[in-house]
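input
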Amino acid sequence: MIRYSRITNKIKREIVLLKGKPCKWGKCSFCDYIEDNSTDEDLNDKINFDILSNITGEYGVLEVINSGNVFELSQKTLNYIKEIIVDKKIDTLFFEAHWIYRKRVKYMRDFFGVKCIVKTGLESFNQDFRERILLKGFDYKNIDEIKEYFDSVCLMVGIQGQSKEMIINDIELARNNFNHFTINIFVENSTNIKPDNKLISWFQSEYKWLDSEQKCDVLWVNTDFGVGD
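output
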């Protein structure tokens, strides 16, 4: 498992894939990523400290991800991230949290004490697809409510049951409402959710221009950030 890398295009940053406790939501139908966790906090901290020791601060920007939410990292790991932010003169931090943690996002921003770009795995603005198929658990009233807590949304493309119209609308809403967003192409995994390869091919042809969209990161494969397996 590769757990440290550099993103060298668009928003240049170092990125680390850490280990935390099991995802508190843990219900997303398409996700087996949450298997990369452990209830052994000492083990998690040991792994995380080794990974974090690679950070140089060369870009002044760091992204921290794990198999769930930043809130599932131990306090020791969070404290060490904060030390590194100071020591390496990091001025911008990316991290991710599920909707259930929205009321605690401000606490984490204040804890780290630098500019934070907080991402959330919305996957789609289409409520029926998102909640009936993906089981995401986002009960927001409108986009402004999402923007109240989060700076960036992660969208998923290429799942059976999704349509071109949904994707077109999702991208338009993300571009018009957020200064940053991420698109992940769904890759078949151990879950029962299956990719729609025709839809993925259409997206790859129609939306290749997103590679030039400064505020959008596209993961054409799920290891495009250089971390993972």
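quick obs: The domain at 4-219 is CATH 3.20.20.70 (TIM Barrel).
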